[in-house]
């Protein structure tokens, strides 16, 4: 990685309080990424993969250590500032698509813009371009119940990219899909963010999905290691 890293994670640790003791999940995690980088992270269930992703996405706080995204320490921001920062700088794709059933596909894709006010024409155009890119241009007015599971997940990818985030985080993005749909979604995840210069982190149990990353890492003994 180069010295102009846009994501810098240093000495990251995460502990949880339990009734018996403090449970350590992550220890001294180090990570640097720059524009267009993509990595996959594998590891057994309970190894802390999703916890790490939630911290990088500013949905959870580390116990110690630091995260810096484009020169900003998000955990130094107020709650309101953090929400705006997250909406503009981070995109999420989860195992479940989380599309709102009462909204059309394009309305779901526009949700990150709605969070900041009424979508502009340029944002609507952006949503249409993304739906074209994920092969859903002819499904834009359909409800989520009227499209397949793979198509719903492709819509979720488009939604995550709407605000041109610098960091895209995908947590088991193909976990609910058949092999053919998984391959389509994985290809989109690895291609679209790179085309826009965004960084991508994919957490997955699928070795096939993990092997498509430029850099492959594993959570072992609470630490992130390259393999």
Strand content of the residues, in percent? 25-35%
SSE pattern: EEEHEHEHHHHEHEHEE
Quickly name the level 1 CATH class of one domain. Answer: Alpha Beta
Shape: globular
Rounded radius of gyration (Å): 17 Å
Class of secondary structure makeup:
alpha/beta
Read across the widest sheet, the strand sequence of neighbours is 5-6-7-3-8-9
**Main sheet?**
6 strands, mixed
Distance between the termini: 16 Å
Number of helices: 8
Q: On the 0-100 scale, what is the average pLDDT? A: 94
Q: Looking at this structure, what is the CATH superfamily of one domain?
A: P-loop containing nucleotide triphosphate hydrolases
Percent range of helical residues: 25-40%
The CATH architecture of one domain can be given as 3-Layer(aba) Sandwich
Low-pLDDT residue intervals, each spanning 5 or more residues: none
Q: Write down the CATH topology of one domain.
A: Rossmann fold
